[in-house]
Amino acid sequence: MPFRRFVMFRRFVALPSCLVVCVALQSCTLAPKRVAIMDFENATGDHRLDGLSTAIPESLITVMNRDPRRVYILERQDINRYLAEIDRAPLRPGERLSNSRFQQLGKRLGADYLVVGSVSRFGKMYVVQCRLFSVARGELVPSASMAQQCNQEEEVVIIVQNLGREMVKQVSARSVQ
């Protein structure tokens, strides 16, 4: 008789409770990560390429927005508005923020991660670097930094698309920490 009660308890109480916990955990992990993409630094030394500082993030937004179930991209106007509030002026192309300012910005925007990066040129070769900044930890995520290179300015768009797809994988594979 006691064994039968245990079986009944397990069927009607324990199993449904486990299902509720599993569903709750699954919904937590499936929530899209909130990402803010910052302007990239123009590290080429050529001011004619300052437009890449904003063109690269715009291309990343286009690529990363393709799967809103995994990644939610925050609006750039919100980023610039907040930067204007705290600094009274938006960042100049190539200007960097400290880790504590990145963290402050991310918290204010409600972001889980920030994507930061730079574009460099060595002779005729362009290198685009992307780094993932964890707002909760206040630091760059070491295993989520990547770079790609190309030989022509026109190919930068192609490598940015590759980097964007890889960033979506990196962000969605992580728990928010």
Structure keywords:
177 residues; 2 domains; Rossmann fold; globular; alpha/beta
Topology (SSEs and partners):
Blueprint: H1 2-30, E1 33-37, E2 41-42, H2 52-64, E3 71-73, H3 76-87, H4 99-109, E4 113-122, E5 125-134, E6 139-140, E7 146-150, H5 156-172
Parallel strand pairs: 1-3, 1-4, 2-4
Antiparallel strand pairs: 4-5, 5-6, 5-7
Helix pairs in contact: 2-5
Question: Please, could you describe this protein's structure?
Answer:
- This protein has 177 residues and is an alpha/beta fold.
- Helices cover 46% and strands 21% of the residues.
- The chain is built from five helices and seven strands, in the order H-E-E-H-E-H-H-E-E-E-E-H.
- Strand 4 and strand 5 (125-134) form a beta hairpin.
- The protein starts with a helix and ends in a 5-residue tail after the last helix.
Q: What do we call the CATH homologous superfamily of the largest domain?
A: ABC-type transport auxiliary lipoprotein component
The helix fraction, in percent, is 40-55%
Number of domains: 2
The CATH class of the largest domain is Alpha Beta
Average pLDDT number = 81
Given the helix and strand composition, which structural class is it?
A: alpha/beta
- Major sheet characteristics: 7 strands, mixed
Q: What's the alpha carbon Rg, rounded to whole Å?
A: 21 Å
What series of H and E elements makes up the topology?
HEEHEHHEEEEH
Poorly predicted parts: 18-28
In CATH, the topology of the largest domain is named Rossmann fold
